[in-house]
Amino acid sequence: MTTTSFYGYAASAFLAVAVTGSPARSQGYPFSQRGTVTQMVAFTEIAVSYGRPVARGRALFGALVPWDSVWHPGADSATRVTFSRDVLLEGKALRRGEYSLWLIPREHAQWTVIVSRAAHVFHKPYPGSNFDVLRIDVTPEQVSNMESFAIYFPMVLRDAAVMRLHWGTTAVPIHIEAPFRPRPS
Fold it and tell me: How many C-alpha atoms does 132 have within 13 Å on its Cβ side?
């Protein structure tokens, strides 16, 4: 290749990238960023991976998220939660493992939290009740505004914790107990 043809090729390549942009830039940034949180509760590790949708001025519950329908708390891939040991959610037993989380929001009643063994799924459609491992009812709380959906642990005390799912001015607290039981030898 001659020097002239090399520079001609390089100029053409530069012009093509300058006009079209890089592949990452042409697709833009994702609307919902991924988030993770890991929390030790006694000797149990709880790890959550989820998408963080942004309210962007939209009415959330009862509008974007309809009442009385199964909703995936998050965006894109279903929210996954992993428990390294057996736990109690709202006093109900859940074996260690990896699960997806789903909610049924209600306007004038407790919300239902669904724990599904279909852990690696997209946020739509709901995998179905045949994959449900546990359903618990919780009372949502009115809290300060959270623009991007968040899952966090506002309270951890020895072998108990609260995992909060929070978006807009609504938070869903899930009480978790992680009692330590030595494995039989």
Answer: 13
Q: Reduce the DSSP state of residue 90 to 3 states and report it.
A: coil
CB 119 within 8 A of CB 80: yes
Query: 4-55 pLDDT, tens per residue?
Result: 555 555 445 444 444 444 444 556 776 778 899 999 999 999 999 999 999 9
CA distance 152 to 171: 10
Report pLDDT digits (tens) over 41-61.
999 999 999 999 999 989 999
Taking the C-alpha atoms of residue 178 and residue 175, their distance in angstroms, rounded to an integer, is 10
Please state whether beta strands 87-89 and 92-94 pair in parallel, antiparallel, or not at all (unpaired): antiparallel
Q: Tell me how far apart the terminal alpha carbons of the chain are, to the nearest angstrom.
A: 72
126 CB-side CA count, 13 A: 18
CA 78 to chain centre: 6
**C-alpha–C-alpha distance, residues 138 and 73, integer Å:** 14
Gap between the Cα atoms of 86 and 24, Å rounded: 41
CA atoms within 13 A on the CB side of 21: 6
